[in-house]
Design a protein that fits this description.
Layout: E1 2-7, E2 10-16, E3 22-25, H1 28-64, H2 66-82, H3 84-87, H4 89-94, H5 100-109, H6 114-144, H7 150-168, H8 172-195, H9 201-228, H10 234-261, H11 274-278, H12 281-285, H13 288-298, H14 314-337, H15 345-375, E4 377-378, H16 382-401, E5 411-413, E6 428-430, H17 436-469, E7 473-474, H18 480-483, H19 490-504
Parallel strand pairs: 4-7
Antiparallel strand pairs: 1-2, 2-3, 5-6
Helix pairs in contact: 1-2, 2-5, 2-9, 5-9, 6-7, 6-8, 6-9, 6-13, 7-8, 10-13, 10-14, 10-15, 13-14, 14-17, 15-16, 15-17, 16-17
Length: 505
């Protein structure tokens, strides 16, 4: 039943529903008005909110990685300087109105690091010069051959050289370093050779020289700004990446072993979250492409910082390959940590000390290698740390052999006493040899840990070879800081240090 009420000067319609209540009927005009307001609000609010989120993400990216902001400013500075050719009439006429080529060169060539910029600059300059020279030579030969053979010679030359240059881009050695130069060669030769068909050789030479001069201006500006204003060296980035990966590998190894033997999952050391350092090996596994690109760009860079002109950048790839070989084994080690099938606690307790010592010594070796690369000095204690690893491996192997002969899984049984006096007898301990199903998960973990140590030796050899090729200096032992605080004679200090050495071994 419909009811009609007048509330505050407005007519209100209500309808009774089966549950005993009544609902207000809203006119269609009012519903349309509200829908229109909501649509209008969404029309302005959604774009504004998206723009605000975009600006917020951009700001956070700039704060997190200021190098990208600096790169944008450097590109803007290069374009500002090149645009002077348009503002100055004399410069504009001097390049024959081809100032656009300088702007295109800056936009295409300028990269985020010095090595990539130099690579593209040299490739573009070489490709442009060779293509322009060959095009002028082909044009001269075609003009001397007469109007009949001129298009034939130009067409055949374009076909042969373009096909050869395109095929060369599939050669691995050319593709890694000269792919951009080959592409520029094809583009420039085709444009100059074809466009010069209707022009004389002298006019074509003037056009080619003007275009090459504008390209040279753009290349020079990119090289100067890239190297002088807040330079980002690809070699330094590669060096720091390898150092960080070594440290992450050490944290991942130590964290995986600690997680495996840590039943209550407590946080060890100063780590905020153990899972972060355990998954550090994933960064090592995913860094191959970055290492290859950086090593390719670092070859083009001049001497800078601690790196000479012919620094062995390819050796960094060998170190990266050795680290990934070790990281694969740590990944398998981590799968044992997350496995649902675990060894009994009494077996884990038997191996805890030996495994923790081995992982700690192995992580210390990796950190020492990272410090060796960071300071570019040969470590004086790496041999001692390797000896400690070998001793820890022998101790772990002895622990593995002694498992069947140790008292394992004590089970207490009480004999049924025939009289009240026998009820006070002490329980009898029973030793049980662990089954193959109990010891298999732990044995797998132990052998993987030993395999990790074996693969760490490959990293040591790769770093040692880098130290020899790059001529790392010997680390200076700082003794002056340790002498001053004590008032003991020198003989007492030497005796004290001599007593410490056997204890450490």
């Amino acid at each position: 039943m419909d009811k009609e009420k007048e509330v505050s000067g407005k007519l209100e319609w209500r309808v009774n529903v089966p549950d005993g209540t009544s609902r207000v009927l809203v006119p269609e005009s009012e519903l349309g008005h509200k829908a229109w307001l909501l649509w209008l609000k969404g029309l302005f609010y959604r774009p504004i909110s998206k723009i605000w989120r975009f600006l917020d993400k951009s700001w956070n990216l700039g704060v997190a990685e200021p190098k990208k902001v600096i790169h944008g400013a450097k590109v803007g500075l290069a374009l500002l300087i090149v645009s002077i050719f348009y503002y100055n009439r004399n410069l504009y006429d001097g390049v024959g109105g081809y100032a656009t080529w300088a702007i295109m060169t800056v936009v295409v060539v300028f990269e985020s690091n010095v090595g990539a910029t130099l690579s593209k600059c040299i490739n573009r300059a070489t490709g442009t010069f060779l293509a322009g020279s060959l095009a002028l030579g082909v044009q001269w030969i075609a003009c001397k051959s007469g109007e009949t053979f001129k298009p034939i010679i130009i067409g055949i030359s374009v076909f042969i050289l373009a096909s050869a240059a395109t095929f060369s881009r599939f050669i691995p050695s050319v593709k890694t370093r000269f792919d951009y130069g080959a592409m520029i060669f094809i583009l420039t030769f085709s444009m100059v050779a074809v466009s010069g068909y209707q022009n004389q050789v002298e006019k074509l030479y003037k056009i080619a020289s003007q275009r090459f001069s504008t390209v040279a201006v753009g290349i020079s500006l990119c090289m100067i700004i890239s190297m002088l204003f807040c330079p980002v060296w690809a070699g330094s980035e590669l060096h720091n990446l390898i150092v960080r990966n070594l440290e992450k590998l050490a944290d991942s190894l130590e964290g995986s072993v600690a997680e495996y033997f840590n039943d209550d999952k407590t946080v060890l050391g100063n780590e905020e979250d153990p899972s972060i350092r355990i998954e550090g090996y994933k960064c090592v596994l995913n860094s191959k492409a970055t290492e290859d690109v950086m090593a390719n760009f670092a070859i083009w860079e001049p001497a800078h910082g601690l790196f000479n002109f012919r620094h062995p950048w390819k050796q960094y790839l060998m170190i990266g390959a050795s680290m990934r070989n070790c990281a694969y084994c740590i990944e398998a080690l981590n799968s044992c940590v997350n496995s649902k099938i675990q060894a009994p606690d009494y077996l884990k307790k038997h191996f805890t000390n030996a495994c923790m010592i081995l992982s700690s010594n192995s992580s210390e070796v990796l950190r020492e290698l990272a410090n060796t690369m960071k300071t570019m000095t040969k470590s004086s204690k790496i041999d001692f740390l390797v000896e400690e690893i070998n001793l820890a491996v022998l101790e772990l192997q002895d622990s593995l052999k002694s498992v069947p002969n140790s008292p394992i899984e004590p089970t207490v049984t009480t004999l049924k006493a025939p009289n009240p006096n026998d009820a006070n007898r002490e329980p009898i301990a029973k030793t049980v040899i662990p089954s193959i199903m109990d010891i298999s998960p732990l044995a797998c973990f132990v052998y993987l840990l030993i395999e990790v140590v074996a693969r760490i030796e490959g990293i040591i050899e790769a770093v040692d070879q880098l130290a020899s090729l790059a001529e790392f200096k010997l680390a200076m032992v700082e003794k002056s800081k340790q002498k001053k605080p004590t008032n003991k004679p020198n003989s007492d200090i030497q005796d004290h240090e001599t007593m410490k050495a056997p204890q450490k071994v």
